[in-house]
Design goal:
The protein has about 450 residues and is mainly α. It is built from 21 helices and no strands. Helices cover about 65% and strands about 0% of the residues. The longest helix is centred in the N-terminal third of the chain and has 27 residues.
Length: about 450
């Protein structure tokens, strides 16, 4: 009864503060999803969505004057769930979206309770322990509560012996936000071919929808020019920024010198960066797959949790709102854990949701937390791997990384900045941005980074 009363009190606080504020404030990330839905209704070509200046003007034309926004690095279909709201005024559409997100959140909590046999009030308390990530989603009208619901529903379908539906849901997550891509490797490692077929079919179907909506030329532009940059962590402006808290950002900041954005790396070694980035990324996914493959005939909640954690470890872009996706793996791990381990898992989720001052992000604290979680969970699988198999996998990953590094390094060395002397602009007393635009740019940076303003 005490847990239920506390959960209801937290929910009431959430409605009265976070949900109420998101309902009323104008500044948010919602225009990044609402504006392209409006553009679809107007028949605008997809290729224009990825033009930052043009897209910013469309945000203003849609009746939203305050925030800066961008559609990079979203997929062609990211706006799809918001198409029914495109005919509504922006603030009304946002309120409809927040109401739907509240439903997705309640649905995810209920499903997680059914999946793990943990009382629903205890699931809710774990959710509220990571209040910062929940707050970021509802303040900003973000997208990740929907992804939380879809990923939770995917495992629920697996548990109910509906692998094709589970795969289709993961395919939808991939088509909407790219996060679901590594789960295809999970299904293949488990030899769950119905789930592989469901996910592949959903990706092909939704790819056909994108081509029908925008034409092959524009979809090919996304695949050729936007997707590679997004995968490389270059889709959100400054790829060196520490608030991203990603492996790619850490490696880039450590080994890749850029005169203005990163003039003093720990070691100016671009070849090492271009090798380590694919080596670590592919290595995490390959060893996660090798681990879960050892129990390929079983429905393994811990293995699914490991793969979701691996997916977030290799994500090239992360904001504080994305950490809500750690909720399913945390609860799946808690299902059969002892009291001490349960407390540690709740503390881990709370730390991931806690908003940090900007200066703290220079040491990437949250990155180390979820990497440690990945290694701890994965060790239970890897200790069963034969040494010769582990060595063969590591050599294969190194070969792939070497090939990819050679290609990227050749492209890097051919850039004008490597061919000609770099000229740095010295800023004078006047700024290039007017005070209002500079203020909006700072707000946009804080929203995208998910850091607290200090």
């Amino acid at each position: 009864m005490k847990a239920r009363a506390l959960a209801l009190a937290c929910f009431a606080l959430f409605l009265g503060r976070t949900f109420h504020k998101g309902w009323n404030i104008d500044e948010s990330d919602f225009p990044n999803y609402y504006t392209p839905a409006v553009l679809v209704q107007h028949g605008e070509p997809l290729i224009k969505y990825y033009d930052w200046e043009w897209f910013q003007r469309q945000i203003n034309f849609a009746g939203i004057e305050e925030p800066l926004g961008t559609y990079i690095p979203q997929t062609p279909l990211t706006m799809l769930p918001l198409l029914p709201m495109a005919g509504l005024p922006a603030q009304t559409a946002k309120r409809v979206w927040l109401t739907l997100n509240l439903g997705f959140l309640v649905g995810a909590v209920w499903l997680l309770s059914r999946i793990t046999n943990i009382h629903i009030e205890h699931v809710a308390l774990v959710l509220f322990a990571g209040y910062g990530t929940l707050q970021a989603n509802f303040h900003l009208g973000q997208y990740y509560v929907l992804l939380l619901f879809l990923l939770t529903l995917a495992f629920y379908c697996l548990q109910r012996q509906q692998p094709m539906a589970s795969g289709a849901l993961c395919g939808a997550v991939f088509a909407l936000k790219l996060y679901g891509a590594p789960l295809l490797l999970y299904f293949a490692a488990k030899r769950n071919w119905k789930a592989v077929a469901g996910m592949s079919g959903a990706i092909l179907l939704l790819g056909g929808v994108a081509i029908a909506m925008f034409g092959w030329h524009d979809v090919n532009y996304f695949l050729r020019d936007i997707l590679p940059r997004a995968v490389d962590g270059e889709g959100m402006g400054n790829p060196y920024r520490t608030p991203d808290g990603t492996l790619t950002a850490l490696l880039r900041r450590s080994f890749l010198m850029e005169p203005e954005l990163n003039p003093h790396p720990a070691l100016d070694a671009p070849g090492l960066f271009f090798f380590l980035r694919p080596f670590v990324t592919v290595g995490i996914l390959v060893f996660a797959a090798a681990g879960v493959a050892l129990k390929r005939g079983e429905l393994d909640g811990r293995g699914f949790a490991l793969f979701v954690i691996a997916t977030l470890c290799v994500a090239p872009n992360l904001g504080s709102y994305a950490f809500i996706l750690f909720l399913p793996p945390i609860l799946l791990l808690m299902e059969h854990a002892g009291k001490r381990d349960r407390i540690l898992l709740v503390v881990t989720y709370a730390l991931l949701g806690f908003p940090l001052p900007l200066e703290w992000t220079r040491v990437y604290p949250k990155l180390w937390i979820f990497l440690a979680l990945f290694l701890i969970v994965g060790w239970g699988y890897w200790r069963s791997l034969r040494p010769n198999v582990a060595i063969a996998l590591a050599l294969g990953v190194a070969l792939i990384a070497s090939i990819d590094a050679r290609r990227h390094l050749a492209s890097y060395r051919s850039e004008p900045g490597r061919q000609f002397q770099t000229v740095m602009l010295k800023q004078g007393p006047k700024t290039l941005l007017c005070p209002r635009l500079r203020s909006h740019a700072r707000e946009f940076f804080v929203r995208q980074s998910g850091m607290a303003v200090t």
